[in-house]
């Protein structure tokens, strides 16, 4: 996996630390740590399955990391794997032998994703009680398999998705709305089949709330139509949403449309959920790499959340306090954190949450010597851009002024991508094959 960072005296260290975090989050390692086969016995976590007792073993999946997961599953199951269908973001495919991989749009769902969702649901619906269905989920699954409820068009879901992504809502809140507009999400895929189910998840949800990962197609859903409406009202998109969506959610609230299956439903007794990787996996590995490099290293236990610009400003403010001696840590040091911020977008700027975090941090860091902040999306694509994130330093704002790049204007317009590109601040990895939220570093030499 290529990892390109801006030139600086810290580049080698940052490459080492970021690279360690990304490698640790590799879905292949995660799969092999949790899924094993010895002869006809398949072990998933603490549970064991006799593969001879099933007529068919079929795999379906969706997400940016699902093709990599599928490759490992093929190796583990060998001849026991019958067939399956995996849906990935365009550009994130990997070669497979028994499983069909389809590319679709992300973060806004497209027609390819809708067609793939229909195929996936049909494949699952034909399975019987003597079949084993293995479901592979990772970040991006919700967008990749759109399955609109009756009366809601794909165009309506596309419009709502764009509104939700720009609203500042968390992924849990966005997925609550999605669950109540889908024939697959919120446990409805599990309802569509009689097969026994094993769901393997690479978590992109802070807190690893497994009912929210991929909008929980095989998980019970504790949320309601009332919750979905409340979220849309909170973020002021209810009255702007397509009328078909408002009608469906209102009908659900009145009890005229069936709710998603809830915790305690009998169907979920034959479903195993196993989280195989998460944000902390990457954060711990990055922390260990920084320590091996001879840095005084602190793992920040609290995930970084909230608006990206506010979070970036707070992270850089911490660097200033440390530089002023208000906290007890001596250089060289490295703070490592994980999390996932949000951006409430206005206008038509191009950027992403990691780039917005970094740009705001650069303004706050101005003038600090030998201090760098890096923000990187572990999937390799920060927002709808080809950058994974950015590295900034105490000299970035001065460089911006010299090159006549207005960082503050870029932040105000949520147009950080062209500004950071002009400053040669981008981190570029290409599609990493994983997705476990974001990684943040504060490095002082």
Keywords:
six-stranded parallel sheet, six-stranded mixed sheet, 16 helices
Number of strands: 15
Distance between the termini: 27 Å
Counting copies of identical and different chains, the oligomeric state is single chain
SS-derived structural category? alpha/beta
Radius of gyration: 22 Å
General shape: globular
Describe this structure as you would to a colleague:
Helices cover 37% and strands 19% of the residues. The chain contains 16 helices and 15 strands. The chain has helices at 11-24, 27-34, 66-77, 111-125, 141-144, 154-167, 171-179, 188-191, 225-234, 243-253, 279-292, 308-323, 353-365, 396-402, 407-412, 416-422; strands spanning 35-38, 41-44, 47-50, 56-62, 83-89, 99-104, 131-137, 196-202, 271-277, 296-299, 333-339, 371-377, 389-393, 426-427, 438-444. The strands form three sheets. A six-stranded parallel beta sheet has the order 6-5-4-7-8-9, sandwiched between helices. A six-stranded mixed beta sheet has the order 10-11-15-12-13-14, sandwiched between helices. A three-stranded antiparallel beta sheet has the order 1-2-3. Helix 7 (171-179) crosses helix 9 (225-234).
